[in-house]
Structure formats: C-alpha cells, structure tokens
Automatic annotation (TrEMBL):
Domain Pyruvate carboxyltransferase: 24-275
GO molecular function: 2-isopropylmalate synthase activity
Protein name: 2-isopropylmalate synthase
Keywords carried by this UniProt record: Amino-acid biosynthesis, Branched-chain amino acid biosynthesis, Leucine biosynthesis, Transferase
Cofactor(s) it depends on: a divalent metal cation
Keyword Amino-acid biosynthesis: yes
NCBIfam families tied to this protein: LEU1_arch, PRK00915.1-2, PRK00915.1-3
C-alpha cells in the first residue's frame, strides 16, 4: 500500500537519501517497562491475556517481564512461554547470574541483559569502573549464550555515556555473542538528530541488528525512535499506550502508524487491532488513555468544528491523515458549540431525518440554534440530546399557527420566599399577564398559565425525565392536558425544567384549541 503521507513531496524529498530496511521489528515491553508504570501491577493471568493480544496483533518480541523480581512475575513469564506463541518471548535480567538463571528457568527464547554504562550510573549506582562494567556485561552474555539462548544486550543510560566507551562496550558485547544491540535513552534526553547520529555511529562499528529503547521524559520517545530508524535501527522497543517508567516509553501504536503511513515501512502489526489492544491494556492496567492521544485516543478521529466536519463529510482525508478503520477506530462527528449546518444535517440523516422532507428549513434552523445554545452552556451533546431536540422542534406546532404563545416568563424561588411565577402570554393578538404562587417554580409557572387560560383546559398529568446525566442535562417534560372534551399529551425538552414545563403545557393548550376551533 502506498503510504498516505509519503505522497507528500516535501517528505519524499526530505528522506530520499535514507536507505530504509524493508521492515522494522517491534519489541513490545508493555509487560516489563510498561508494568513499571508507578501503581501498575498485573496478575499472571492479566499478563497472559495481554501477551495473547500482543501475539495476535503481530509483535515480533514480547518482553514478558523481569522474572527475578518476584515469584508472581516468574509464574507469569512461565505461563507465557508455555503458550508457545508465534512471538519470541523475552525476559529481562541484570548482568547477574541469578537473574539469568531465573530467566532460563522460565523457558524464554531471548534474554535481554543490561548494565548501565554512563559515568553517573557507574559511579553512584553500580560503583564500578569502566572495565568492571565491560567484564560484567561480557560474563553475562557468554553465560546466556552457553545455554543456547538468544541475547539482546542494553547499555543502560547509553545516551549519557561517553560515545567512545559506549562503542567499546557494544563491541565487547558483540564479540561475547550478543545477537542484538539495544540503545536505551533511559531518561529520555535525546533529540531526534542526535539519536540518528548515535545510531549511525554505533552501526558503523558492528553488524548485528541495532535496536532502540526511548523514554518520553521530554515527549520525544516516538520521534527519537523514528530518528533511530533513520539512522539504521532495525528494531524499536515500545509499549501499548506509551506506558512505562515516569513519562513512559515510545507508544507502539504511534510508532507503527508513523512507519506504515508516513514512511511506508512495514511491521508485522495488524493495525486494525490497535484500538482494541489499547483499550485492553488500559482496562487491565487502570491507566486511562487521554482523549487526544494519537491513533487510539477517543478523539483521534472525532470532529466537532463545523469547518472540519464539513470537510470530512465531503472527503475524509481533508481532516484525517488516515482512515480510522485502519487502526480499528470509527469516525465521530460531535455536535456542540462549534458545530455547523453540514454536520447537523448529517446527524439528522443518520437518524433517518431529511431536511426539506421530515423537517422544514425553519425547524432545521431551530435545531441548529438549540444544539449550539446547549453547547454554549458547556454541555457535551449526546445522540439522545439531539433526538430530544429534534422531537421537541418537529412535534411542536408552528409558531405562526399558535393561538397561545409564551412572550415572557419569570420565576422566583428560594427558602425564604414563596415560589412565584409571572407569565405574559400572547393569545391571538392580545398579551395577557398573570402571576401565581405554587409549591415550587414549576407549579407556580403552570398555575400562572392556567390563570390566563381559565378552567376550560386542565393539566391532568405531569412527568419529567433527564435525557442524560448531570445537572445540566436536557430535561424532558411530558404533560397530559384535557379540555373541550379532548385529551392531549405533549412533550418539551430544555436544560431548564421550568421552560420545558411551560413549553409542554403551552403546546398542549394549542393542540386542544386548534382542534376545538376546527
Ligand atoms: C532502566 C530499567 O528500567 S531497569 C529495570 C528496572 N526494573 C526494576 O527494577 C523492577 C524489578 N526490580 C526488582 O524487583 C528488584 O530491584 C531486583 C529484584 C531486581 C533487585 O532487588 P534487590 O536485590 O533488593 O536490589 P535493589 O533493587 O535495591 O538494588 C539494585 C541492585 O542491583 C544492582 N544493579 C542494578 N542494575 C544492575 C545491572 N544491570 N547489573 C548488575 N547489577 C545491577 C545495583 O547496583 C544494586 O546492587 P546492590 O544491591 O549490590 O547495591
Ligand atoms: C533495561 C533498559 C533497556 C531500560 O529499560 C532502560 O534503559 O530504560
């Protein structure tokens, strides 16, 4: 498939001299670095469920855990290796014999062993000199290889390590048998240009695949991972939803979609499963995905602005870089304060209503006004709200036909005053004003109307429902009135229950009077 954005000549020109590999391997560390997210702890069964989903989506390597860290972790990694998944199963181990033995015991296909190489880590954490660090790395790699297991070696804090020494460490690691060299940006301090340069420098010196592991402390984990690919990396470490230590790791879904849609580079990921995988990891880890998260966020393919919605309805690519289905999402047109007529027309169509057929142009304008004014009040508008507004507007007698209409209403209520309402009703051409008291503002308002209309029409029943939750929800009032031998039931929906009640009652009065007149 032709990538969506590489067709852009600017990008084509910018990357024309880079020799990209056919495909990039995805090393998923959701179950290891992802689980290091503060507060996250998965049970072995939950880890198995995520491992199966990772396998099904097509990741190349699953870092299933850090087996030495607990008996539960060991059990989880053993359970995952026993599934015989297509993905390679990897366990993390310090350059410590016990860590390696426990990983071997779990039956992993690959051991990811690491030791920190930066001056800070050598001096304050490991308390080792440069030579000791190299010796520990070499011993660990040789020990793993002597068990016939694949080794991925990481220089922890590589990006704050003296570059000559880093290359020396990696050369020793490769000589000791490391199959893959991983370059971790442990505290996320790299910038894309520097990452590309570093990977090129490392790659020059060795012929094993180079991998990258980027943290997101400055929000650059994905950009740095991609820059590493531009520098020649063939494998990227990432986590679902970008979870991980501190600000997290490079997000799998973003990395995969950038490679596929912008660079046209393949991974084995079945991208249409990305959103479900993201939801599963969010559910099991308890880490919510921000709505504006790229690719899998709730809003990644949602459009509220009138201009955008119009564009998308005409041709989706106007405001979407890729089709939502490609990542298992659906396009959403959200109605609110920024909505335009095209979006509302489309929503009505979705609900089986056509402007000019089921609703008049005048009613359509009223629907737009009602939706925008609800949005102005800060309300998130649901389909149920739209349906209530449509019903309210379309089932209402036309203003020009009404015998009785509301000119004004004012209510007063409180704990130290008697609820009082004043109404001004237009009856034919006359305006009549009355006030009444009641047990509450709705009761007072209905009684004030009743006193204008007289006793010939009476309220028989009154019900109220909230369409959606919240104190700002649309309230739907349903009333039954009887008069002149006729009974009518009418509805009105407003955020204000007094207005909804008054409008429902006036609608009922009009219906009775209109049939009585005939
Ligand atoms: C950058 C990363 O994300 S690395 C992975 C980080 N993940 C985790 O730490 C989660 C799991 N960790 C654990 O359960 C525990 O820390 C364990 C089981 C690994 C170790 O626990 P403990 O033995 O109690 O040690 P503790 O965690 O307090 O300290 C770490 C020790 O490992 C040493 N160490 C750290 N990294 C390495 C390494 N790569 N190779 C060898 N030794 C190392 C430290 O110098 C320290 O040694 P010391 O005990 O002799 O002072
Ligand atoms: C173990 C290594 C790769 C790591 O997680 C890091 O450096 O962030």
């Amino acid at each position: 498939m032709e990538p969506y954005c590489k067709i852009n000549d600017i990008i084509k020109e910018a990357i024309k001299d880079i020799n990209f590999p056919e495909s990039i391997k995805i090393f998923d560390t959701t179950l290891r670095d992802g689980e290091q997210t503060p507060g996250v702890s998965l049970t072995p069964d939950e880890k198995v469920e995520i491992a199966i989903a990772l396998n099904n989506i097509g990741v190349d390597v699953i870092e299933a855990g850090f087996p030495v860290s607990s008996t539960g972790e060991m059990e989880a990694v053993k359970k995952i290796t026993s599934l015989n998944l297509d993905a390679e199963i990897c366990g993390l181990a310090r350059a410590v014999k016990k860590d390696i033995d426990v990983s071997i015991d779990c039956g992993v296909d690959r051991i990811h062993t690491f030791i920190a190489t930066s001056p800070l880590h050598r001096k304050y954490k490991l308390k080792m000199d440069k030579e000791e660090v190299i010796n520990r790395a070499v011993e660990a790699i040789e020990y793993i290889k002597s068990h016939g297991i694949k080794v991925e070696f990481s220089s922890e804090d590589a990006t704050r390590t003296e570059i000559d020494y880093l290359i020396e460490v990696y050369k020793n690691a490769v000589d000791a048998g490391a199959d893959v060299i991983n370059v971790p940006d442990t505290v996320g301090v790299m910038i894309p240009k520097a990452m590309e340069y570093l990977i090129k420098e490392v790659k020059k010196e060795m012929d094993v695949p180079i991998s990258v592991h980027c943290h997101n402390d400055f929000g650059l984990a994905v950009a740095n991972s991609i820059a590493a690919v531009e520098g020649g990396a063939e494998q990227i470490h990432c986590t679902v939803n970008g979870i991980g230590e501190r600000a997290g790791n490079a997000s799998l879904e973003e990395v995969v979609m950038i490679l596929k849609s912008i660079y046209g580079i393949n991974t084995k990921i079945k991208t249409e499963k990305l959103t479900n995988l993201s939801r599963l990891v969010s559910k099991l880890t308890g880490i919510k995905v921000q709505p504006n998260k790229a690719v899998v966020g709730e809003n990644a393919f949602a459009h509220e602005s009138g201009i955008h919605a119009h564009g998308v309805l005409e041709h989706a690519l106007t405001y979407e870089p890729i089709p939502p289905e490609l990542v298992g999402q659906k396009r959403k047109i959200i109605l609110g304060k920024h909505t335009g007529a095209h979006a509302i027309k489309a929503k009505l169509k979705e609900l089986g209503i056509e402007v000019g057929k089921n609703v008049t142009e005048e009613q359509f304008k009223e629907i737009i006004n009602r939706i925008k004014s609800l949005g102005d009040k800060g309300k998130r508008i649901t389909d149920a709200d739209v349906e209530a507004i449509i019903e309210d507007v379309t089932k209402r007698t036309l203003k020009s036909e009404r015998i009785v209409d509301l000119e004004q209403i004012a209510v007063m209520t409180g704990n130290r005053i008697i609820p009082t309402a004043s109404v001004a009703l237009r009856i034919n051409k006359d305006v009549k004003k009355r006030s009444a008291i009641g047990v509450g503002p709705v009761d007072a308002a209905v009684k004030a109307i009743q006193s204008v209309i007289g006793e010939k029409i009476k309220l028989k029943e009154y019900h109220i429902n909230a369409i959606t939750g919240g104190t700002d929800a649309l309230a739907e009032v349903i009333v039954t009135l009887e008069g002149y031998g006729k009974e009518v039931t009418t509805k009105a929906a407003r955020e204000d229950i007094v207005r909804a009640s008054v409008e429902a009652v006036i609608e009922g009065i009009n219906r009775i009077l209109m049939t009585h007149k005939k």
